[in-house]
């Protein structure tokens, strides 16, 4: 147990005498350095979490939490499978879909895209595409009308607007009396959506499921059933449960599998940013070494006197450990408070700074996410705080050990 002697002497040494204000100034700089590093680290981690959440929501706005597909052939009876899936307590919506790769042509513009056939009345159960429409409505798609809804970037590339005609070419050819010809069909653009992810806005189009099935020669069948879950993070467990319930002819996958590389890259980037910014905290923490070394040098005679009146080397070491730990705790506490306040108000402060300086940090013409998001995770706060405290305690070990080795006779020889 720490005795009051060690605690109060260590506390007293954090405030130098009048003739040694420089040491107090260095201590203050150490505290402020740790606080600044902790604040920056917590804020950046919150912003990284915000970007990850924003990207995840945008991706899952078009993709689904889980899908069930029938291997090697189209699915004819999707209602039975959807009913079985919705019986799971975590599944809150199910809708069929048809998916395939085609080429679209308008004038001289040609590009390959992914088409998805949906039932407009069922699609809102599994995605929020209808909320991302910037022109037209998803309900404008009707069976056998051969209408299509394009992503905003795809529409810009083709130069297409609502009401224009585009040609869709499938990879399957048709055998005719004049030879083998590519299958193509004229579609009318009925709407344009913008999700905010280039992958979907540039390479994605939606049509009615009946039209997609006809175009891809699926005999009114479907590629599979898309599922919406109550908790997206339970997707892996739900997919495993459903795989055990359905027959082996079905393949169940979830969003963590389809977008694994993307989210793994985001996680890696977040880890790298944590390590880089932790170095700021480490530099500030090890400023304590210079502070305590100066204090030990300044207090040589006082240390010698305490040794002569009975203080043990352990007590001397504890005195300086307490002093360094106090600096670290103060800096970490201020940093945690500052980091929480700053991270919680990033979405308000950044627009205010942009208005003040008449600028925009994330240009909407360049970045799909033009606002700086923030998602404060208190697990990250605890990790940063513990890291800062550990680094400061490590920084105090050498000066405290050096103080404990002070020999009273040598220190008092010239006093």
Describe the protein's architecture and organization.
- With 415 residues, this protein is of the alpha+beta class.
- The chain has two domains: 203 residues, no CATH class; 193 residues, no CATH class.
- 53% of the residues lie in helices and 20% in strands.
- The protein contains 14 helices and ten strands.
- It has a six-stranded mixed β-barrel with strand order 2-3-8-5-7-6.
- A hairpin with a 2-residue loop joins β2 and β3.
- α1 crosses α11, α9 packs parallel to α13 and α11 packs antiparallel against α13.
- The two termini are 34 Å apart.
- 37% of the residues are buried.
- The model has no long low-confidence stretch (mean pLDDT 83).
- How many domain units? 2
Could you spell the SSE succession in H and E letters?
A: HHEHEEEEHEEHEHEHEHHHHHHH
Instruction: Quickly give the structural class.
Output: alpha+beta
Main beta-sheet strand count, sense and barrel state: 6 strands, mixed, barrel
Q: Which ranges are low-confidence, i.e. pLDDT below 50, for 5 or more consecutive residues?
A: none
What is the radius of gyration?
Answer: 32 Å
In spatial order, strands of the major sheet run 2-3-8-5-7-6
Our estimate of the beta-strand percent is 15-25%
Distance between the termini: 34 Å
- Strand tally, please? 10
Q: What is the number of helices?
A: 14
Mean pLDDT: 83
Judging from the principal axes of the Cα atoms, what is the shape?
A: elongated
Helix content: 40-55%
């Amino acid at each position: 147990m720490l005795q009051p002697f060690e605690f109060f002497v260590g506390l007293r040494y954090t405030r130098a005498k009048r003739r040694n204000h420089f040491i107090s100034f260095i201590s203050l700089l150490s505290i402020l350095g740790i606080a600044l590093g902790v604040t920056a680290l917590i804020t950046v981690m919150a912003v990284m979490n915000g970007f990850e959440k924003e990207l995840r929501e945008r991706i899952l706005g078009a993709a689904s939490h889980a899908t069930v597909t029938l291997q090697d052939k189209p699915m004819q009876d999707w209602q039975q499978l959807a009913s079985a899936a919705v019986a799971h307590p975590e599944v809150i919506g199910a809708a069929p879909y048809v998916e395939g790769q085609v080429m679209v042509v308008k004038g001289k513009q040609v590009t390959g895209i992914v088409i998805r056939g949906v039932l407009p009345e069922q699609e809102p159960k599994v995605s929020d595409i209808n909320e991302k429409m910037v022109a037209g409505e998803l309900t404008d798609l009707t069976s056998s009308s051969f209408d299509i809804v394009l992503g905003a970037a795809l529409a810009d590339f083709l130069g297409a607007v609502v009401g224009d005609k585009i040609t869709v070419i499938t990879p399957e050819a048709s055998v005719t009396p004049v030879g083998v010809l590519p299958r193509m069909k004229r579609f009318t653009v009925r709407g344009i959506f913008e999700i905010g992810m280039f992958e979907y806005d540039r390479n994605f189009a939606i049509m009615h499921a009946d039209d997609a099935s006809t175009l891809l020669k699926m005999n009114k069948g479907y590629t599979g059933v898309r599922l919406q879950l109550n908790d997206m993070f339970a997707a892996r467990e739900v997919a495993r449960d459903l795989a055990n319930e359905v027959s082996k002819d079905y393949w169940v996958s979830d969003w963590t599998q389809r977008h694994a590389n993307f989210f793994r890259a985001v996680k890696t980037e977040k880890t790298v940013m944590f390590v880089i910014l932790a170095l700021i905290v480490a530099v500030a923490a090890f400023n304590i070494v210079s502070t305590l070394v100066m204090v030990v040098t300044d207090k040589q005679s006082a240390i010698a006197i305490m040794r002569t009146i009975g203080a043990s080397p352990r007590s001397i070491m504890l005195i300086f450990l307490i002093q360094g730990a106090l600096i670290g705790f103060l800096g970490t506490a201020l940093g945690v408070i500052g980091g929480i306040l700053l991270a919680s108000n990033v979405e308000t402060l950044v627009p205010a700074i942009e208005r003040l300086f008449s600028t925009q940090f994330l240009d909407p013409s360049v970045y799909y996410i033009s606002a700086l998001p923030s998602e404060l995770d208190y697990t990250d706060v605890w990790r940063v705080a513990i890291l800062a405290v550990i680094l400061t305690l490590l920084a105090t070990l050498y000066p405290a050990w050096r103080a404990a080795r002070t020999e009273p006779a040598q220190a008092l020889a010239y006093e």
